[in-house]
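Hey, why these numbers?
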Amino acid sequence: MKLKTACLAASLAAAGLATTGMAQAQSSVTLYGIVDINVEAYTNADNGRGGSHTATGMRSGGQNGSRWGLRGSEDLGNGLKAIFTLEAGFSSNNGQGDGRAFNRTSMVGLAGNWGELTFGRQYTSAWSVFGRSSPMSYASQYEPLARLVPSRADNSIKYRGQFGGADFSAYYAFTDQADQMAYDADVTGGYGIALGYKFGMFRIMGGWDRLEEQTDGATGAVVVNQGDNYLLGLRADFNKFKVTGAYRYRDIEAPVGPDIKSHLYMLGLAYQVTPAAGVELAYYHENFKHDLRLAGMSDDKWQQISLRGTYALSKRTNFYATVAHSIDGPLNLNNSAYRIADGEDSQTGVAIGLRHLF
C-alpha cells in the first residue's frame, strides 16, 4: 500500500512538473540591456565664471543610452499574445538612475497578426518608425535627438502594424489626471501618426505629432500652447553603403512672443569597411524663422557635423570613437548637456567609448 501511494505521489509530481513546463513554454521573460560608456572632451564649455574651458570627463551613453529592461510575452492562443516591456535608463559612469523606475518604457498590451495594441509610457509612432532613417541610428551623444521628433508619451494608447513592406503606427496620449484637476489641463496630451514603406533597397517614412497644452509641473504655468512636428525620412542601402536623409518642420505656439518655427535638415552616410569595422558621417542644419534663437545660439541658423567609427569585438561588444563640431551654437543644440560659454559660437567634442549589449 505504501509502495502504491509512493508511486502515485511520484506520478502526480511528474505530471505537475510536466504541466509547469508546458505553462512556462507558453510564456517568456527576457532581461536585456546596454551598457555604454566613454571618455569625452569638448571645447568652449562655460566655466561658471564668465569664461570658457575644455571640459573633460566620462559620459554614459555615446552610441546608445545605457539601459536595462524586461520584455515578456504570454501565448493566449489563436495567434494572440499578451506583451509587456519595462525599461529603465541609467548613467553607467556613476550608477544613477534617470529619476523614474522605468523612465524609458512602461507598457503592456496585446499582439497578433493584426499588429500590436499597447498602453502606458512608450515611444511615439514617429520615433518608432523613423529609427532606421536616423543618420546615426539615434546616437545619444552627438545626434540632436531632442530636435528630431517627440520621443515618448505618457498615458498613451498606441497601435503598430507591419504588413509586408508597410509599417504603420498611431497613438493618443492623455494628460495626467492630476494636471487636469489642478490646472484645468486639456484631457488630450498629444497624438500622432507615422507610416513607413520599404521597397527594394529603399525605405521612406513620414510622421506627424501634435502636442497639446503643456504645463510646468511645479508651477502650473503654460509652457507650450500647442506644437506640431512634421517629419519625412529616406534611407537607401547599397551593399556596404547606407544613405539617409530627413526633413523636420516644427511649429510651437509659445505662451508669450511669436511662435517658434524651424526647419531641420539631416543627411547621413555610412560605410561598412569590414565585417567588424564601420564608419558613419552625419550633417544637421536647423534654420529658425523670425530670427529666433535658442539658448547658446549666435545666429538663427545652427549646424553640426558628426563622424563616428566603430569596431566590433563580438556581436555584443564594440569600441567606438566619435568627433563632432557645431557652428553658431552648442553641440546637439542642447544647452543643458553642452553649455556653451558666452561669446563663443562653436563647440568641438571628441569621445572614445565601449558599448556592450546583453
About this structure: The chain has one domain: 29-357. The mean pLDDT is 90. The longest strand covers residues 27-46. The CA atoms of residues 130 and 340 lie 29 Å apart.
